[in-house]
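Hi team, as promised in this morning's meeting, here are the two structures we talked about. I've kept the exact order from the run log so nobody has to guess. The first one is mostly here for context; it's the second one we should focus on when we meet again. Sequence first, then the predicted structure tokens.
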Amino acid sequence: MTDPIATIADQIASREWGLFGPNTYALGVDIGSYGLRAVLADIRGTHVVHRAADLRPGSNASMVLDDVMTMIHGLLQEEGMRRDHLVRIGVGFGGPVDSIKGITRRSYRMQGWDNLNVRERFEDAFDAMTLLENDASVIAFGEHLFGVGRDVGDLFYLHLSSGVGSGIVLDGRLHRGVTTSAGEIGHARLKVGGAVEVEDILSINGLLRRASELGLHTEDLTTLFADPGVGQQTVGEAIELLAVGLAGIVQLIDPALLVLGGVVTRKGGDMFVRAIEHQVNALVSQTPQRHIPVVASSLGHDAVAIGGLALALDSLN
């Protein structure tokens, strides 16, 4: 697999990023449940570097923000950068956000994030304009600007991991919705008055729980996808539900491309993606006649940080 960090340099160099000098840098940051990541780049694409750090055991919001600030300060120092060279920061967060106010609404996996002004913390620390978005949304924009969707203006991204989320790019712009929560489909309830959400079925834990109900007891997605009996039944049920939902998305926004990402997609591999593509196209209307491509995300483990960098650079225009 091609290293996405290496390939985005050419993409950055091929574009104009507003009326800024060559020593202008942008930063993408991933604040997620799997760890911390950052990607730093100048607007000429001549210098692109990234860093990663694990979360401390028992981390809360305060600890995570302290750690990500330390990581970024260290990165800037190691690269010999003056602080005023950093002019934009794009942050992707693993939970619902208010991107207008720059606050995290909550985290479903960690304490302390309720109504926390993350944008203010970054701008106070680095004196650089900061944008905050949900992680799936920034991946969607990253795929549009630097990844598999860079030749299309309209795409839908679905993230299948410890949670289920999505991002929407329409006419080359990230679609946020009225409350800036467009894409939070994982928490849609499947029955009026019911407690079961989409995420309860299609997340990592949801798939493993369903397999256990059918008699396959494992904590490993690789085992689940490889099992010819219960594993394939579990995956088949998930594909059917995904295909129905994605076909509805196609009818609603008519994207050029559907992109799948997250741990579930990586573990399922090409066969998983191809099966979803086949079923989606069997369900969508053929008036007009069309084939909607379904592809895997290309940005790898740094997808959120790269997406944050894409947002930061795009804002320079």
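And here is the second protein, the one for discussion:
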Amino acid sequence: MSQLLKGKTALVTGSTSGIGLGIAIGLAKQGANIVLNGFGDHHVAQTQIEQLGVQALYHGADVSKAKDIEDLFGFAESNHANIDILVNNAGIQYVANIEDFPVERWDSIIAINLSSAFHTSRLALPYMKKKNWGRIINIASAHGLVASAQKAAYVAAKHGIVGLTKVTALENATSGITCNAICPGWVLTPLVQKQLDDKAKAQGISNEKATEQLLSEKEPSLQFTTPEEIGELAVFLCSPAANNVRGVAWAMDGGWTAQ
């Protein structure tokens, strides 16, 4: 097994399942130790990571709160796990027209999907600068590049993530620290699978037909991106081949934003 990232530590927020876990596993396969974070069952995720022969720590910080994020970094430091690779993945969604959008939902989406990436980045960068090496990967979305109705907070946050990515990249452009964003379209996670199951049941159609309906609305390839594929792209962005990939919003959306 390649050990491209041996001796490095990666913090992946929202990594107890789905996209975040796929990224964590991808980085661990390359030898990176992992700091997991999220509200899911972390024991399963830790076991999967440790089976790859690396260390897996877990901290349950609520990344909507700056103090919790500071505690998370203190925890990592106390366990000799200074952050070389930061993956800002944690995110939530809510759908409603702007005039009907609950204020508390707006606030929580902006806090988790956008502000958390600012707080983790400001805490990770000083250590990365000492080593003159670091990778910050922000998981944005096709909705960081284009909009959909009824997703005001999510679209605003993901556009903000793309902007934050560019600023972070520019501020560190002459250093060994890079910052890039990955912009997936539909990803087949347990949450999306449940949506498909519910859609199929409600309409009395097959799961395959429900999948086709969902994807045909936006994604020309008519296929999901997988967490494993996103993990592989994250590995590339951490590799020497990506040393000069800076400030990119990398669409991984089956042609969604090419239209």
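Starting points for discussion:
The chain has two domains: 9-187+226-254, 188-224.
Residues 58 and 234 are 20 Å apart (CA to CA).
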